[in-house]
Amino acid sequence: MEGSEHKNPVGIIGSGSFGMAIANLLAENVDVLLYARREEVRLAIEKREGRYSVLSPRIQAVSDLQLVAQKCQLIFPIVPSQAFRSMMKQLSPYLNPTHFLIHGTKGLDLQDLPQGQSLHPEHIKTMSQVIEEESIVCRIGCLSGPNLSKEIMEGQPAATLIASPFTEVIKAGQAVLKSNRFQVYGDHDIIGAELAGALKNIIALAAGILGGKGLGKNLWALLVTRGLSEMIHIGKAVGADVKPFLGVAGIGDLVATASSENSRNYKAGYRLGKGETLDDIMETSTDVIEGVKTLETIRALGAHLGITTPIVEIVYRVFFKKMPVDNAIQFLITYPYAVDVDFLP
Ligand SMILES: NC(=O)C1=CN([C@@H]2O[C@H](COP(=O)(O)OP(=O)(O)OC[C@H]3O[C@@H](n4cnc5c(N)ncnc54)[C@H](O)[C@@H]3O)[C@@H](O)[C@H]2O)C=CC1
Ligand SMILES: O=C(CO)COP(=O)(O)O
């Protein structure tokens, strides 16, 4: 599947903020089929009503997964992690081994555990592993980077990473997404890129708390630096390479998300820093806040693997156990471990 002479339309599953942003980027190069589950959303897209008015004329809305699979060899699934497996179960009957799937989801899949059974690493899957488990497709990639959808929709320049064990997947993604306002890097470590994208949301929650408390850049920089280190330790513990954490999908996305009020994770932390509770935030937010579930999952995983993750632990206590933020900061600042860079071989 070579690029600029791409004949088939490219498919996107999920017509939310990021699905729309990627659809507009793709539409600079190719025709796009944008799947919307609900007929009223498909109609609103077709009529370019409200938020959909900014979508390129090359984007056609459809609400038939079979049609997407028939018409598109390359498909970008971009739905929240909690809906990803059920979406794959619906899509899978229409897929065959010639399909390429590059997902844009930054979260983890957690298997429902029977009462009393404790969490094991094998209960946690990245989205590429879910695609592998639920379909016959093997050419799988992920899209991850500092890609706040609002900025992309405004037409601002940005870059991303496509990670896949298959060079042809990276090339296919680059061919349809690259433009004079969007750079696309490539790498083969998909698990590292997926983990970096999901884990950085935890640090964005914490950065939001600091923002909400009106704290300054010294502490923010410390959080981002130590947060990256913790992300790398978690990644290494489950077999990922350090490299993706040091690239656009790692430090790049971490800096963007942990500093932007356009990040839903940052915003959730900010509200907590202003004194709201997690219940207040979840009850009143219509946004996907991927980091909250990832935080619970990774805290449980860290405990199982016996790795030390003080930031994850303390953000968990602040979000889920109502630990006062000042106590949390005090705990981290006086943490009895002060080795600066300890993740290099
Ligand atoms: N918004 C952003 O700036 C970015 C978001 N992401 C990631 O993209 C993923 C999606 O986020 P957003 O688009 O922002 O969320 P969103 O809430 O704006 O949209 C999610 C979309 O998925 C659809 N959906 C849910 N379940 C579905 C199913 N079973 N089948 C088909 N469609 C389904 C919803 O109807 C909705 O249109 C998240 O994992 C997020 O972390 C990644 C980079 C940037
Ligand atoms: O991952 C993102 C930007 O790269 C989007 O972050 P939020 O999900 O926090 O909005």
From TrEMBL:
<keyword id="KW-0547">Nucleotide-binding</keyword>
<feature type="domain" description="Glycerol-3-phosphate dehydrogenase NAD-dependent N-terminal">
    <location>
        <begin position="10"/>
        <end position="165"/>
    </location>
</feature>
<feature type="binding site">
    <location>
        <position position="263"/>
    </location>
    <ligand>
        <name>sn-glycerol 3-phosphate</name>
    </ligand>
</feature>
<keyword id="KW-0560">Oxidoreductase</keyword>
<dbReference type="InterPro" id="IPR006109">
    <property type="entry name" value="G3P_DH_NAD-dep_C"/>
</dbReference>
<dbReference type="GO" id="GO:0005975">
    <property type="term" value="P:carbohydrate metabolic process"/>
</dbReference>
<dbReference type="GO" id="GO:0005829">
    <property type="term" value="C:cytosol"/>
</dbReference>
<feature type="binding site">
    <location>
        <position position="52"/>
    </location>
    <ligand>
        <name>NADPH</name>
    </ligand>
</feature>
<dbReference type="GO" id="GO:0006650">
    <property type="term" value="P:glycerophospholipid metabolic process"/>
</dbReference>
<keyword id="KW-1208">Phospholipid metabolism</keyword>
<feature type="binding site">
    <location>
        <position position="18"/>
    </location>
    <ligand>
        <name>NADPH</name>
    </ligand>
</feature>
<feature type="binding site">
    <location>
        <position position="290"/>
    </location>
    <ligand>
        <name>NADPH</name>
    </ligand>
</feature>
<feature type="binding site">
    <location>
        <position position="253"/>
    </location>
    <ligand>
        <name>sn-glycerol 3-phosphate</name>
    </ligand>
</feature>
<keyword id="KW-0443">Lipid metabolism</keyword>
<feature type="binding site">
    <location>
        <begin position="264"/>
        <end position="265"/>
    </location>
    <ligand>
        <name>substrate</name>
    </ligand>
</feature>
<comment type="pathway">
    <text>Membrane lipid metabolism; glycerophospholipid metabolism.</text>
</comment>
<feature type="active site" description="Proton acceptor">
    <location>
        <position position="200"/>
    </location>
</feature>
<dbReference type="Pfam" id="PF07479">
    <property type="entry name" value="NAD_Gly3P_dh_C"/>
</dbReference>
<dbReference type="InterPro" id="IPR008927">
    <property type="entry name" value="6-PGluconate_DH-like_C_sf"/>
</dbReference>
<dbReference type="GO" id="GO:0046167">
    <property type="term" value="P:glycerol-3-phosphate biosynthetic process"/>
</dbReference>
<comment type="function">
    <text>Catalyzes the reduction of the glycolytic intermediate dihydroxyacetone phosphate (DHAP) to sn-glycerol 3-phosphate (G3P), the key precursor for phospholipid synthesis.</text>
</comment>
<keyword id="KW-0594">Phospholipid biosynthesis</keyword>
<dbReference type="GO" id="GO:0008654">
    <property type="term" value="P:phospholipid biosynthetic process"/>
</dbReference>
<feature type="binding site">
    <location>
        <position position="149"/>
    </location>
    <ligand>
        <name>NADPH</name>
    </ligand>
</feature>
<feature type="binding site">
    <location>
        <position position="145"/>
    </location>
    <ligand>
        <name>sn-glycerol 3-phosphate</name>
    </ligand>
</feature>
<dbReference type="InterPro" id="IPR006168">
    <property type="entry name" value="G3P_DH_NAD-dep"/>
</dbReference>
<keyword id="KW-0521">NADP</keyword>
<feature type="binding site">
    <location>
        <position position="17"/>
    </location>
    <ligand>
        <name>NADPH</name>
    </ligand>
</feature>
<feature type="binding site">
    <location>
        <position position="264"/>
    </location>
    <ligand>
        <name>NAD(+)</name>
    </ligand>
</feature>
<feature type="domain" description="Glycerol-3-phosphate dehydrogenase NAD-dependent C-terminal">
    <location>
        <begin position="189"/>
        <end position="330"/>
    </location>
</feature>
<feature type="binding site">
    <location>
        <position position="106"/>
    </location>
    <ligand>
        <name>sn-glycerol 3-phosphate</name>
    </ligand>
</feature>
<protein>
    <recommendedName>
        <fullName>Glycerol-3-phosphate dehydrogenase [NAD(P)+]</fullName>
        <ecNumber>1.1.1.94</ecNumber>
    </recommendedName>
</protein>
<feature type="binding site">
    <location>
        <position position="37"/>
    </location>
    <ligand>
        <name>NADPH</name>
    </ligand>
</feature>
<feature type="binding site">
    <location>
        <position position="264"/>
    </location>
    <ligand>
        <name>sn-glycerol 3-phosphate</name>
    </ligand>
</feature>
<feature type="binding site">
    <location>
        <begin position="14"/>
        <end position="19"/>
    </location>
    <ligand>
        <name>NAD(+)</name>
    </ligand>
</feature>
<keyword id="KW-0520">NAD</keyword>
<dbReference type="Pfam" id="PF01210">
    <property type="entry name" value="NAD_Gly3P_dh_N"/>
</dbReference>
<feature type="binding site">
    <location>
        <position position="264"/>
    </location>
    <ligand>
        <name>NADPH</name>
    </ligand>
</feature>
<keyword id="KW-0444">Lipid biosynthesis</keyword>
<feature type="binding site">
    <location>
        <position position="288"/>
    </location>
    <ligand>
        <name>NADPH</name>
    </ligand>
</feature>
<dbReference type="InterPro" id="IPR011128">
    <property type="entry name" value="G3P_DH_NAD-dep_N"/>
</dbReference>
<comment type="similarity">
    <text>Belongs to the NAD-dependent glycerol-3-phosphate dehydrogenase family.</text>
</comment>
